[in-house]
Design a protein that fits this description.
The chain has 30 helices and 19 strands. It is an alpha+beta fold and about 750 residues long.
């Protein structure tokens, strides 16, 4: 069973994600017994089989190498680290959270009616841990730290899964305030449901710590008095009318007091002139009654005056009251289903955040997502009605219950008017400098920022600070650049200037991550991958020019493309491209041929040049294969050479791999023969010199790296596979490092703030 799981050689389009999820699920199910125990024997068997068949030489299979290495490393951690095994064993079946139960069933492919057990929950958690996390939607701000946590802090990761399954939420205490991110059950097909739900729940933490009350009250609800059709205007007008009524009451009480006072003075005069004891007694009784009425009038006047004073100061107190209450009733959460805007392939789609109505409850399963104008208005109405009971008590306005009730009724009346929603859209668009279509209620799909749902880049800074309960900002180094060489120098100098403890961390574990960001994307930098650069004592620009780039310049200078070689490359493009290039009658350098390529095909041609150089005539094929096999300590088998007029570096690599598979009668090996073949080819100038890989993109099987672009002979920033044999220039980002736009690049340079170090 274990061998069948680890020998999956599926090779159809986009099969990587399927294999990633499928192998993790099948392994988890085979390693956790029905009693919920780790099968130590099966675990050892899986590790042994993986070590013996870790690397596959089928076409494109090298793109699985990082996942395979991660899979093996994770199984070894589970085998050796008892704390991880204990954390996994603590996980139990969800007894009441339907969302968590659904995720477990989806992760394991179980039927809806299947009664879940602790074993199922642990299998799902293990499957999530064994799945190599990749970014799927515009959640890079959450994916990057999630990758670091899953890879470098698996104990915390498993504890999070336990919380999600048991409680349906993640909670963090920051400066004495508890922040809760409810389980996000939204996942897409082809992904590990429980793993993606955890990632998306982390995304919600980036907003739970933000000042939602200020955002919502001051912008969406329109609390400023000058905001037309907002609640502020309504509150101000209602309070003004209330004060006018109180002032009228004060005037009435004052007038009544003055009238009574005059009567008392008259009675006092008559008492002094009383003609008999009977008349005097009658006057004294009348006087006493009038004095009581005067006291009552004074009390009514003073009470009204005090109420007037309180009401005159009520506006800011009322806003503060609702600001405190609104956190108990509303919360923004990440919503992976929001894709109202699109972006280019290399910039992240904006992340979607949706408002939940919490009903004033702490139980996350009772919270309701708001998805429409009607639901938003209903939730606002319920909020103002629910908080009315405590309004007078908390604001110490005893005696104004009826007036405050009328005030709440006024607010509800305002938010139920069509003008309120339209004005909300207008205020939000103006505040964030975003376009707003005419008649927004009729074109909701064109409104990027709604009061109940909006698109944002997400905030990795806030997410990490919230997740790790760190109120302080992450230490960071940032820059903007005008040339790719400046960006590379920034990468190198950031590590050169890092504390010794940080440098040692990445030297000991070259795969350890450092959170980083481009102007539009958050990712995981890998300082250990380019340690040769920052360990050098040479001046950074000198190292780049003389140590790293010079060999590639020589490689390009030494290689000419014959007309046959040029034609061989052009065969990969449509006829109109070949027609635009025209006839080639003499040898060209790579950049000279590229200058003839139409601009819309230039990026693809750069990629082809990088993957193909050097080209060589067919009669050299056997000698080059001898060179490779001899360096590998193997004998070259006999073979029938393909009848090509010339070959590319990619052809040579794939032929060598195919011969090795044929010779060994197996496509899987314990040694990374793909990497070994690539290294031999580079050492003997049979492949393009190695790029300088600097980070994990978060995307499926690609890394960020620098190289000398063979089409332009200039330093460039590319996305490449881990072995650096396939890639494309990130031309869409060139506006950020050629001076056109001052986009910010940076690193969070203190990994102890977000990982174990």
């Amino acid at each position: 069973m274990i061998e069948e799981i680890l020998s999956d050689d599926t090779s159809f389009e986009k099969s990587w994600l399927w294999r990633n999820v499928h192998i993790a699920k099948e392994l988890a199910c085979s390693l956790i017994t029905d009693r919920g125990e780790i099968d130590r024997r099966a675990l050892k068997e899986a590790i042994d089989l993986l070590e013996g068949k870790l690397f596959c030489l089928l076409p494109g299979a090298h793109l699985d190498d990082r996942r395979q290495r991660y899979l093996l490393a994770t199984l070894k951690k589970l085998q050796k680290n008892r704390a991880l095994a204990s954390a996994l064993k603590k996980i139990s079946a969800p007894h009441w959270h339907r969302g968590a139960a659904a995720l477990i069933r989806q992760t394991l492919g179980l039927s809806e009616g299947k009664q879940l057990t602790a074993a199922d929950a642990r299998r799902a958690a293990l499957a999530a841990w064994l799945t190599f996390l990749r970014q799927s939607v515009g959640s890079c701000f959450a994916t990057a730290p999630a990758i670091v946590i899953q890879l470098q802090d698996p104990l915390r990761f498993l504890q999070d899964l336990d919380d999600l399954i048991a409680k349906g939420e993640l909670t963090r205490l920051i400066d004495g305030v508890e922040h809760t991110a409810p389980l996000c059950p939204t996942v897409k097909s082809g992904e590990s449901p429980l793993l993606k739900a955890w990632e998306y729940t982390l995304a919600s933490l980036s907003e739970s710590h933000a000042n939602f009350a200020k955002w919502n009250l001051y912008i969406s609800l329109g609390v400023e008095q000058h905001h037309p059709h907002g609640i502020g205007e309504a509150i101000y007008t209602a309070l003004k009318e209330l004060i006018e009524g109180i002032n009228e009451q004060i005037e009435i009480s004052q007038s009544h007091y003055e009238h009574l006072f005059a009567q008392v003075k008259l009675i006092e005069g008559r008492m002094r002139r009383a003609s008999s004891d009977t008349e005097a007694a009658w006057l004294r009784a009348d006087y006493s009654l009038r004095r009581q009425e005067i006291d009552r009038a004074l009390r009514d006047r003073d009470r009204a005056a005090m109420q007037g004073q309180a009401v005159s100061q009520l506006y800011p107190r009322l806003i503060e009251y609702y600001g405190k209450k609104i956190r108990d009733y509303f919360q923004e959460v990440y919503d992976a289903e929001m894709h109202d805007l699109t972006s280019n392939p290399y910039d992240d789609s904006p992340a979607g955040f949706r408002l939940l109505y919490k009903h004033g409850r702490t139980l996350t399963t009772s919270w309701t997502p708001i998805s429409s104008p009607e639901e938003y208005l209903d939730s606002l109405t319920a909020f103002f009605v629910s908080t009315e009971v405590d309004l007078a008590t908390e604001l110490e306005l005893e005696g104004l219950e009826k007036e405050l009730s009328r005030l709440v009724t006024t607010i509800i009346t305002v938010i139920r008017r069509p003008e309120f929603l339209e004005s909300s859209f207008a205020r939000l668009a103006a505040a964030y400098n975003e376009p707003l279509p005419k008649n927004p209620l009729e074109h909701l799909d064109q409104v990027a920022r709604k009061p109940w749902a909006y698109l944002s880049g997400g905030t990795m800074q806030t997410l990490v600070s919230s997740y790790f309960c760190n109120p302080n900002e992450l230490k960071q180094e940032t820059t903007w650049v005008e040339r790719p060489v400046e960006l590379l120098a920034f990468f190198i100098d950031t590590m050169k200037n890092a504390p010794g403890s940080v440098q040692t961390h990445y030297l000991k574990d070259p795969d350890a991550g450092m959170l980083a960001f481009t102007p539009t994307h958050a990712y995981v930098a890998k300082p250990g991958w380019f340690q040769e650069a920052w360990e050098s004592t040479l001046y950074t620009y000198t190292w780049i020019r003389d140590v790293w780039l010079a060999p590639t310049h020589r490689f390009l200078d030494d290689h000419l493309l014959t007309p046959e070689m040029s034609e061989h490359l052009l065969q990969r493009f449509p006829p109109e491209v070949r027609a635009a290039v025209g006839p080639i009658t003499y040898s060209l350098r790579a950049n000279e041929l590229r200058d003839r390529i139409p601009s819309q095909w230039a990026e693809d041609f750069d990629s082809l040049l990088y993957e193909s150089l050097p080209l060589f005539p067919s009669h050299q094929l056997e000698d080059h294969l001898h060179t490779i096999f001899e360096a590998l300590g193997l004998s070259l088998p006999t073979f029938d050479a393909p009848r090509y007029r010339c070959f590319t570096a990619t052809d040579l690599r794939e032929i060598a791999k195919a011969l090795l598979v044929e010779m060994e009668k197996s496509s899987r090996f314990s040694l990374p023969y793909h990497d070994k073949i690539v290294k031999v080819m580079r050492d003997h100038a049979l492949a393009y010199p190695a790029p300088l890989l600097v980070g994990d993109t978060n995307w499926v099987h690609t890394s960020f790296g620098f190289l000398l672009n063979p089409g332009t002979s200039e330093l460039d920033f590319w996305r490449l596979d881990e072995s650096g044999v396939e890639g494309k220039p990130l031309t869409i980002w060139r506006r950020y490092f050629d001076g056109r736009e001052k986009g910010v690049w940076g690193f969070y340079t203190n990994p102890s703030q977000y990982s174990q170090i």
